[in-house]
# Entry
Amino acid sequence: MELTSKRKPIIDYFIIIVGVTLLAAGLNMFFIPLDLVTGGVTGLAIIIKKLTENIVPGGVEPWITNIVINIPLFLTAVLIKGKNFGGRSLFSTMFLSLALIYTSYLPPATNDMLLGSVFGGVITGAGLGLVFSAYSTTGGTDLAASIIQHYIKHISVAQLMLMLDAIIIVSGYFIFGIEKAMYALVAVFISAKIIDAILEGIHFSKAAFIISDHNDAISKEIMQRLDRGATGLQGSGKFSNKSKEVLLCVVSKKEIVKLKEIVREHDKAAFVIVADVKEVLGEGFIEYR
# Structure
């Protein structure tokens, strides 16, 4: 049974459609013309297209491979995990085949391998990130991994996915050569970073830990001048063996300069630790969905 979000289903399905369209566009504009095998069923589809060029004019189209491989996988998953398994993922997978058809008319964006791997990684990563954010997948190796893990309990789904994708990427190396395989790895890395940015949040903030003898005055100024809250954490100085309050405050990147000014105004000897925060949920930051 797949996870669900608190958004209205129609919004999630719209996000899936946009994400799948971006994924298909990235494949047709960059990865397929440049023979970049980045793993998954789409990577396997690129290999099959190349191997069947002498049998079928132009080779077997990726959208066909996507359906032929994923339908048996979904039927197997339903038999193993129940009929309620993967409704959104089934929609995403089937829609990917449709998207691969209507984006196939987009011309190749570049013949440059580096540009293709970078921009292809960005676009496909953005597409997959949107699909994942709607609690869906596009089938393929993650679905196959979940089926295998049902029988091989001691290996995690993530490890199995890595193994399956590695097999497909290595196959691309033997068919297209080491140079294209290396560019494919660049694309995989960039795609993964974009997916993480979308899922973990791109609204980076700063967390400040302030150790001072004037925390009351500092926290009051923070609340008045920055309209931010502050939390006092109880600590203990091991050198002095005395209790010490640690002030925690989370602010935006542009507010961190003002926060440091406030601290300096009240206590030039204050100890301040500033850390990056990838995502902050709650009032004043990102609202819960």
